[in-house]
Design goal:
The chain has helices spanning about 15-20, 40-55, 65-75, 90-100, 115, 175-180, 200-225, and strands spanning about 5, 25-30, 55-60, 80-85, 105-110, 130-135, 165, 185-190, 195, 200. By secondary structure, the chain is an alpha/beta fold. It has a single domain, classed as TIM Barrel (Alpha-Beta Barrel), CATH 3.20.20.70. The strands form two sheets. An eight-stranded parallel β-barrel has the order 1-2-3-4-5-6-7-8. The protein has a two-stranded antiparallel sheet with strand order 9-10. Helix 1 (about 15-20) runs parallel beside helix 7 (about 200-225), helix 2 crosses helix 3 and helix 6 (about 175-180) runs parallel beside helix 7 (about 200-225). The model has no long low-confidence stretch (mean pLDDT about 95). Bound molecules: ligand LARABZUK. The ligand O=C(O)c1ccccc1NCC(=O)[C@H](O)[C@H](O)COP(=O)(O)O binds near residues 37, 142, 143, 145 and 169. Keywords: Amino-acid biosynthesis, Aromatic amino acid biosynthesis, Isomerase, Tryptophan biosynthesis.
Length: about 220
Amino acid sequence: MSLDIKICGLSTPDAIDAAAAGGASHAGFIFFERSPRNVAPDAAAPLAARAKAAGVVTVAVTVDADDAMLDRIVRTVRPDMLQLHGSESPERVAAVRARHGLPVMKAFAISGRDDLKKLDAYRGVADRFLLDANPPKGSDLPGGNGVSFDWSLLASLDADTDYMLSGGLDAGNVGEALGIAGPPGIDVSSGVESAPGIKDAGLIEAFFLAVAEAREQRQTAALGV
Ligand SMILES: O=C(O)c1ccccc1NCC(=O)[C@H](O)[C@H](O)COP(=O)(O)O
């Protein structure tokens, strides 16, 4: 089974190259001023072009952005996908998708079974889901907090739910997350940083190695070797 891997919060050519070299399927760019990973559209444009040239799908991450901001990002950065990481309603997701003609990944904060029910109103509207942890108390950010949630909750999701498992992943725990949830995609940001907003090529490489090892172990176990 294939596994999509999104490295989020990229802001330098070196980090793009490390993500692409490791085999990232998606590269995320944050357009949210309070984030240490925030990039201006003009600065993100050449980075996104670099990721695209390496065959990586580019994702523009926004939080309750209005049409003017999304217009500017789409016009300048030309992302392949939009990630809506705020409290966007199903109607807003549909409107954004129609206005820009781009697939939309809708993010949800998960801390209990009830949170997963919220996805239902977005089925057939959002192209994909990103399931993240609830921000810790006092956090200024809806994402990128480096905290995880109970991955076993995902066992109750419909098998055909297309999502990325996100929140607090790193090289040390991604194998366990894959084993418990078996997601179609994963997403990481803080877990491959040496400091908030500073991606580390060594940590990115270690993350991909940990994913490869875990997948190999699962395959071996499945074959009963
Ligand atoms: O990463 C941010 O700073 C951020 C800010 C505002 C909205 C979303 C943000 N990140 C979105 C992502 O897709 C992150 O990769 C995701 O929340 C996981 O982050 P982490 O727990 O640090 O791996």
